[in-house]
């Protein structure tokens, strides 16, 4: 299963996408692969802890990074996706 730091739950209310994969902001969003069980845990923590409105792209990305760190995802994976996500957010003008 795939995971992005700039989630569609952030892109849609910020008018960067109408729904998943409906815009370049969503289609070009960097992702990493997670196994099904970890993906479920990540989604639950995101819903509880990561804001999707009233925050900058940077704050949203940082919230998602905290979730992955809390779940002990390897630092190398976290940093690789963070670098790509920051570039994507900069390209979108939301960082």
Topology:
Blueprint: E1 2-4, H1 8-11, H2 24-27, E2 31-33, H3 36-49, H4 57-70, H5 75-92
Antiparallel strand pairs: 1-2
Write up this protein.
By secondary structure, this protein is mainly alpha-helical. The chain has one domain. It has five helices and two strands; from the N terminus they run E-H-H-E-H-H-H. Strands 1-2 form a two-stranded antiparallel sheet. Helix 3 (36-49) packs across helix 4 (57-70) and helix 4 packs antiparallel against helix 5.
What is the 3D form? globular
Biggest beta sheet attributes: 2 strands, antiparallel
Overall pLDDT confidence: 94
What is the straight-line distance between the termini? 26 Å
User: What gyration radius follows from the Cα positions, in whole Å?
Assistant: 12 Å
Tally of separate domains: 1
Low-confidence stretches: none
Number of E-type strands: 2
Strand-residue proportion: 5-15%
Structural class category: mainly alpha
Quaternary structure type: single chain
The helix/strand order is EHHEHHH
* H/I helix tally: 5
Helix content: 55-70%
The largest sheet has its strands arranged as: 1-2
List keywords for this structure.
globular; two-stranded antiparallel ribbon; 95 residues; 5 helices
Task: Give me a quick take on this structure.
By secondary structure, this protein is mainly α.
